[in-house]
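Q: For a teaching session next week I want to show students how multiple molecules come together into a single three-dimensional assembly. I've collected the sequence lines for a complex. Could you give me the predicted structure tokens for the whole thing so I can convert them for display?
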Amino acid sequence: MAAALLSIKNLNVIFSGARGEVHAVKGVSFSMGKEKIGIVGESGSGKTVTGRAILKLLPASAGICADAMDFNGQDLLHKSEKEMRSIRGRGIAMVMQDPRYSLNPVRTVGWQIAESYRAHRNVSGKEARRRTLEMLEAVRIRNPDQVYGLYPREVSGGMGQRIMIAMMLIPEPALLIADEPTSALDVTVQCQILEILDDLVTRRGMGLILISHDLELVSAFCDRVIVMYGGRIMEICDAKDLHESRHPYTRGLLNCLPKITGNPDPLPTLNRDDALLNAFFLG
Amino acid sequence: MIPERARPNKSALKSWLLSDAPASAFQARAGRIYSGCLDFSKNRSAVLGLSIILFLILIAILAPRIAPCDPLLTDLKNRLQPISPKHFFGTDELGRDIFSRIVFGSRLTLYVVGLVAVIAAPAGIVIGTISGYLGGAIDTLLMRITDIFLAFPKLILALALVAALGPGIENAVIAIAVTSWPAYARIARAETLTLRSCDFIHAIRLQGAGPFRIITGHIMPLCLSSLIVRVTLDMAGVILTAAGLGFLGLGAQPPSPEWGAMTSGGRAYILDYWWVITLPGSAIFVVSLAFNLLGDGLREVLDPRKGY
Amino acid sequence: MEDIIHHRRIYRTLNRAVGMAAMVGATCLGLLLATFLIGRIVPIDPVLAVVGDKASAEVYQRVRLELGLHLPLWRQFFIYVKAILSGDFGVSVLTARPVIEDIARVFPATVELAVIATLIGVFSGIPLGIFSAVRQGSLLDHLARIMGLIGYSLPIFWLGLMGLMVFYARLNLLPGPGRVDVFYENMVDPVTGFLLIDCILAGEWGIFRNALSHIILPASLLGYYSMAYLSRMTRSLMIAQLGQEYILTARVKGIAEWRVIWGHALDNCRIPLITVIAMSFGSLLEGSVLTETVFSWPGLGQYLTNSLLNADMNAVLGGTLVVGAIFLGINLFSDFLYEFLDPRAR
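A: Of course. Below is the structure for the complete assembly, covering every listed component.
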């Protein structure tokens, strides 16, 4: 078991809005080393908010409080915005869902990747360009010179995500948070992107948090799985043990998945019981 | 994550209006209007705007009662008198009581605003919806015409029209209305284009409704909300344009107590007799501001997506 | 592969250019038609305007034939279009000179005013708008919105008069109406028509300072309206951009906040912002009509109003046409920017 790269104890996120407060994340605690963790849940389960809370990139209406939030021995909770900026990109990075929206439309993709590199290193433009081209090759883009000068609307979804990955990994962070990185892609492309992510993360010895709603994907790809519902963690288990889970919510999710060798009867629907919110979790 | 609802100690009418499961279309619509009014009343500046306009309407109706003097009565012995209990706003260069003139001038202002709205808005919505719904050559033709009108700045086109038609308040109203309708037509057309491809329009057409019924019964009502916002905001500009025309001597002719013309009349006396200009000008400002506030408030309620 | 992309881009660009040219032509024709028709709805008989009401029947007929009024309307329109395109806007009744000469003489004064006002608006309004967007709900944001609201509600002629009253009449800080003091009128060669530039070219610093002091008040007046408009538009454009996902990406990269705002958000507002500035400039041409009347500024606005009050239809229509053409030009320029320069739209 690796030393703790990221350690979160009792994280709570509360949004204050016009119609009252929304308690989006309730008492989330987990710690991880240089491994791949998947956070799985339905929409509204709080998984994306958890990811953004780690980077402290929530809107101003969100209040973060926790007992502890440590990254590589540094206390993230009490860092100022300025100090967080040196951690973002260099220490922790994030890949988002849809490159059509998460890339700046009026700048070339090469420029954007180079900017990511130059944000944390004082290098010349030429050096940044060279590193960018190297990185584009590392994400298996075949003609980096040409792609460098393209605009985001001129690249396909799969290539856009590769560019995103290149952009986020170029400053060599220790932890990558991937927020639904394949949800906007075709199934065939999804595998390629995950392969690239796996390859790079393992080679560099990084930690990865993969946030997704796809249970099968997460169980196949990650080492450990965190199941969230209603802002709470339902269960933390090893990926290989996921299908044998005893937790009622997780079992409910697993039962909803269609199986080609399974029962031809209609699939059961998930029984969203408030009692689940108070149920025990295995960890 | 359930939003907090208001306490259950409300009157029966309120709970009927705000019910989550309305029993009839009438109840649903009444409920919508009620919650819209509630949202609107939370916006203090919008309520202020509405109050000012209602106040203006009240003054216009009760003008003969409120004004202490005849607005047209000249009294050269008493010209350029300062503010006093006898003349609340002083007298102008011909000795007329400025307060009375402003009070009666409110009628002219409302006349212009009302007529322009009544002429330009229906014309715009009709042309816009027809153009958007029928498409093709009619659309191109009507939009070309609209673009031509929009190619001129409003005041300049109004000037040209008044030059051609001759000065006078009716011609000023016509000129301003002619410059206003293109913007409404554009908005109506844009809304129609979005609605035209909606499934419910296809459904109605399958049921056999003809274009006339579809446009008047379904598309026009849906364009109304954005159009109401735009018309209200425009009224502020209409007041300024009308005052501008009056200032140039092209609106209501003397001795009519039109606020713009009153400002123009006092030009020579700004040095020592500041009230002759300041007070009519403030009246124009206040009413225009009221329409702006009201329009902004309506936009919040009717169109919360387009935050400005 | 690259060649094909390149050729396709050129083909698409040409296609769009031809389409726009056709639309421009149609709208110009429509513009001419509008002014032509306005000229024809004048209730005064144009023949009588020329010959007076004591002329004999044959003189009346002769003038009528001369003016081409016996021809069918569409033929009159063609004659009109031909005349306009060759630069003949008719002769001004007031000055007895070709209208186009008059307009060329007065136009630079208005442009000078509009340019300086736009500069004031740009350098005060845009930073204000950016600040309002970044710090929504702050005191400055509220002040900016109030100022904008006042700008949309104040009659410009009234504010101008107030300005004159305060700064000229009461405080004696600034000179009164006019472009320069009467003493200095016509002392500088009108090389460009822009008085400030002409003074610099002629080295007349005294007159330059005088002209500068005269232009401050009207330009600030128009500049205030420009600032109100630009700050409001900038604010809404910036707010729309700051809510986008790529701004989050930029923040994740850990770059400085000012770079996020100026380098990313504002960058994406570039094209719409230039469009907004162009529109503001165009609307200042409209605002100049009343401003020039208040400040006795010898520009196109005052020319229009004078001609109007003297029923000089040729001059009024000529002026309207010029302003309409400029407005159209500005609109086309904005469309051009969107179509051809925005990497998102290409």
